[in-house]
Amino acid sequence: MNRELQQSGISHTIFAAGDSNWFGNVAAPLAKSLEEVIPRHVGDIPVPVRQRMHRGAVNDLVGFAVIGITLFVTKKIADDFYDVVLKPRVRKCFEWLDDKLTGGNRKTQKVFVSNIWYQEHHVVESVAVVGKDFAEVVSHLNLLGSVHSNALSWIAEHGVSAPVHHYKIENGQVNAEPLLLERADEAVKPYRMPGQSPQ
Questions:
Q1: Mean pLDDT across the chain, nearest whole number?
Q2: Taking residues 90-115, what's their average pLDDT?
Q3: Beta-strand runs (E) in the chain
Q4: Contact 131, 170 (CB under 8 A)
Q5: Residues 130-173 pLDDT 10s
Q6: CB 184 within 8 Å of CB 48
Q7: Who contacts 171 (Cβ-Cβ below 8 Å, separation ≥6)?
Q8: Which residue among 50, 113, 149, 162 has the highest number of C-beta atoms inside a 10 angstrom radius?
Q9: Model confidence over 35-66: pLDDT tens digits?
């Protein structure tokens, strides 16, 4: 399957914001699972999806913990890609995590971000699934495919309005129009608790 995905023009990177416990328990297992089926992206990363480095964060001080995937797509993604390839691996990594996390990682809001860089349009479609815990995030994963599909329809009708078009899924609801951003890492700013500043 890895070879088929490479031929179809899909590669990935993983990004995370959190402490070392977060990286070890969340980011590393997800990266390992995805690398079994989607090659890691090598080469240049477009500016809108480059992750800027920040000082180390303690999740209970930041107020949220982020894990995300960026897919680099040069050809059309199959309609069942989310259900067959992405969702099962994300679900497998996330559904047992709530009981394993400790301290600030257990208390903070969870944000899973799915970014897709569409080479054809030179735009990032960014979708965040927000929940109080991973069980809530997992319960909304089934919406990812339709939100990304609707985002492409929005571009077909309105054109590319910014380097990043961002959508948020929370409590089963999603914004109808994208939040327009210059960079994908700006998308996590709205999820900070009131009165908190970036690390």
A1: 80
A2: 82
A3: 10-17, 64-73, 109-118, 123-131, 164-170, 173-174, 179-181
A4: yes
A5: 998 888 999 999 898 899 989 999 999 999 999 999 999 999 99
A6: yes
A7: none
A8: 113
A9: 888 899 888 888 888 876 443 344 443 456 78
Q: Angle of helix 28-35 relative to helix 87-94, nearest 10 degrees?
A: 150
Contact criterion met (CB below 8 Å) for 199 and 54: yes
Q: Which two tokens stand for residue 70?
A: 């960026």
Tokens of 22: 């977060």
Q: How far apart are CA 14 and CA 78, in angstroms?
A: 21
Residue 124, phi-psi category: left (phi > 0), alpha (psi -120 to 50), beta (remainder):
beta
Number of residues that make up the chain: 199
* CA-closest candidate to residue 79, choices 156, 34, 145, 169: 145
